[in-house]
Amino acid sequence: MPQGIPTLAAEAPALSAANTGFLLICSALVMLMTPGLAFFYGGMVRVKSTLNMLMMSFISLGIVTLLWVLYGFGLAFGTDTGGIIGWSSDYAGLSGIGLTELWDGYTVPVYVFAVFQLMFAVITPALISGALADRVKFGAWALFITLWATVVYFPVAHWVWGAGGWLFEMGVIDFAGGTAVHINAGAAALGVILVIGKRIGFKKDPMRPHSLPLVMLGAALLWFGWFGFNAGSWLGNDDGVGAVMFVNTQVAAAAAMLAWLGYEKLRHGACTTLGAASGAVAGLVAITPAGGAVSPLGAIAVGAISGVLCALAVGWKFKLGYDDSLDVIGVHLVGGIAGSLLVGFFATGGVQSEAKGLFYGGGLEQLGKQAIGVAAVLAYSLVVSAALAFALDRTIGMRVDEEVEISGIDQHEHAETAYDFSGAGGGTGSRTAAAPGGDAQGSGDLLVTADRTRKVDA
């Protein structure tokens, strides 16, 4: 994301109505991604957790918006202090910003840049929620979001994108959030689940998605919104870089979807809707840091590689024993790492920057910078997120009681259920649909699940 570039007084830009309008549209597209994520995750959980999963994303729209206005924008994009954090009193409450004041070196108002970046801040903690399905108190989650955004997201956003941020100054390439969004959220998810533990019945009970149509709807909304997420991050359309990013976003998502489906067909003998949705998201994640640095052919490589890697990674939880409910680690952490590192191989130079990757004669320099960025964000987010979860768990408690988790978190935490089966006409079908846990299948079925395809033993 190209911010903080100084300009000479004689070259001061003028406000561009076209770029301003474009970025406002992109902001709306990125906002739509959070409800899209809610549907994507909401369809992957069991019936008894549907509303809770939706709310874990939606609440971020409320909490993070207010934090961003009060102090988040200032911490992320204010005047740098030591490469670690920013601050500007003018940004506190967004009260000291002129209506037509331009963002540093660009043709869009500060207000427009601030609201665009707000939508990134909103969706990042929402991504974490997919790893915690079925077992976290809603109030504890809301408090975790508040603390995490303050001490993790805002500082990391400054490292990566803020003028003076240490990763920004080092030359780490992250066009739209491979490190600041996806690695950040994925590492946080790992840190939290290591503290709160596994779902009751993990690796024993079937935990398949209750609504694959909702998953596909959510994936489609994410894909649609991702064009704003990625192309908008260049903050303008004057030099064609945003257009390249738009094309690469589509190309990588397509390649990753096909690669994931190919892996599924070879491994499990079927191409699933859940695999198609997950593969597309994996490609979108991976191209997010890389799309302004690679060619469309490079985007195919980034998408295909990330699609296979993420498909492999979703099975790690069964081998390593951590319970990542909806594969936030497998898709967002692994996809973010893959896309960030692949910049060091496929960057062509002459698009987003002159930096070239190994395959284009640039040697290992850019790859080394990318690796430092990946490691720094992963380590910081993992450790601090685990510490926050531990503190909350030991004080107010992060997990719901065992009986609540078994009977259904929706009714207990929200006094609602996603579906009313009371008027379904009774009979076996009605009783099965409403069974505790929301799993309407016998043991021994071949399941396409949020835990992916596996045989459930009797």
From TrEMBL:
Positions in coiled-coil regions: none
Any single Pfam family the record assigns to this protein: Ammonium_transp
Location of the region described as Disordered in the Swiss-Prot/TrEMBL record: 420-458
Keywords: Ammonia transport, Cell membrane, Membrane, Transmembrane, Transmembrane helix, Transport
UniProt cross-references to SUPFAM superfamilies, sorted A to Z: Ammonium transporter
Membrane topology: Multi-pass membrane protein
Gene Ontology CC annotations of this record: plasma membrane
Superkingdom assignment: Bacteria
Subcellular locations according to the entry: Cell membrane
Domain Ammonium transporter AmtB-like residue range list: 22-419
Gene3D superfamilies linked: Ammonium transporter AmtB like domains
Gene Ontology molecular functions: ammonium channel activity
Spans through the membrane: 20-41, 53-71, 108-128, 140-161, 181-200, 212-229, 241-263, 270-291, 297-316, 328-351, 371-392
Subunit record text: Homotrimer.
Record family assignment: Belongs to the ammonia transporter channel (TC 1.A.11.2) family.
Protein's recorded name: Ammonium transporter
Organism: Streptomyces qinzhouensis
